Amino acid sequence: MSKYLSDIEIGADPEFAFLLDGEIQTADDYVRGVRTNFGVDGCGAIAELRPQPSYNPLEVVKNIQIALASGYQKFPKIRKFEWRAGGCFYSKDHGEDFPLGGHIHFGRFDLRKYIEREDRYDDDIEQPDKLIDVLDDYLAQTIILLEDVEGACKRRQCNYGLLAGARPNSHGFEYRTLSSWVGSPYVSAGVLCLAQAIAHGYFKKEIKPLDDRDYGSYFHKCDRAYFKRKFPRLRTSIQKLSLYKPYQKYIDFIFLLIEKNKTWNMKEDMKKAWGIKEIPIIEPAPKQKVEKLILPTFELKHIWGK
């Protein structure tokens, strides 16, 4: 019997920016590595984490913390910068916006079968198209209420963070709609637990796409009032999922921020929220216990903004 609650593997490659006096510092001037757990994105300007995936989202959070701490140790020149996550940052030096993504990877045996098939519409395989709809309906519509509106709107104006943003890969697919949620371990845990709970619920037929899916224009312009009105119904559906109870304290933290009309904090150095200076450098271990997840003592200002 598996020690995990779900057969859906969760991974992520969230992005963040280095800032000095409010100006973006090009990541690949200081960091090397496009396949390491702490490296740069494809364009080289933004830093990117690639934590070891797991069937337990809390282990992924721990591995994010390990990646951040290893980068802090390996690249001393980046310690003086502020490390910021969120939706989008403007660079005066470059004269352009840099959108940040909080991509989440989903792996499952039948998703891999689906990607490998030439005929991807065979009825004997669960089609991930509907799973992507469910992630839009329940995950994206929830997390948009945490996003900084200005950063989120700029990201969508750059044609990033649109609904149904997904890309197939060897293990399944990555969902690319969310802005970068990695600014805090508490938000990260809530987002990843919620993501797995929703995907697991889809395959267990606990949840299906909404009947009313005509919200694309509201999403593109980041209409918080519209999605706040819809939130109680989404929360009720999420609370009925079988993985909600095991992950309740992490998912409820997301709900608490939404109820208090708080957005995640794009102005705070995420090293503080993750307690990076305090973390010993350790390597991820396959049998690592989640109970040993190290979360730093925090002030709420490190997590939310307005």
Q: Describe it for me?
A:
By secondary structure, the protein is of the alpha+beta class. The protein has one domain (9-263): Creatine Kinase, Chain A, domain 2 (2-Layer Sandwich). Helices cover 35% and strands 14% of the residues. It has helices at 57-74, 109-116, 128-143, 149-157, 185-203, 216-220, 224-239, 248-259, 270-274; strands at residues 9-12, 15-20, 23-25, 38-40, 47-49, 82-84, 88-91, 96-99, 104-107, 166-169, 172-175. The longest helix has 19 residues, at 185-203.
What is the strand and helix layout of this fold?
Layout: E1 9-12, E2 15-20, E3 23-25, E4 38-40, E5 47-49, H1 57-74, E6 82-84, E7 88-91, E8 96-99, E9 104-107, H2 109-116, H3 128-143, H4 149-157, E10 166-169, E11 172-175, H5 185-203, H6 216-220, H7 224-239, H8 248-259, H9 270-274
Antiparallel strand pairs: 1-9, 2-3, 2-5, 2-6, 4-5, 7-8, 9-11, 10-11
Helix pairs in contact: 1-5, 3-5, 3-7, 5-8
Comma- or semicolon-separated keywords:
306 residues, alpha+beta, 5-stranded antiparallel beta sheet, 4-stranded antiparallel beta sheet
Q: Structurally, how many domains make up the residues?
A: 1
The number of helical segments is 9
* CATH fold category name: Creatine Kinase, Chain A, domain 2
Taking the alpha carbons of the first and last residues, their distance comes to 45 Å
Radius of gyration: 18 Å
Helix content: 25-40%
Instruction: Please mark out the parts with pLDDT under 50 across 5 or more consecutive residues, or reply none.
Output: 117-125, 284-304
Q: What global shape is seen?
A: globular
Category from helices, strands and their pairing: alpha+beta
Overall mean pLDDT stands at: 86
H and E string: EEEEEHEEEEHHHEEHHHHH
Q: What is the level-2 CATH architecture name?
A: 2-Layer Sandwich
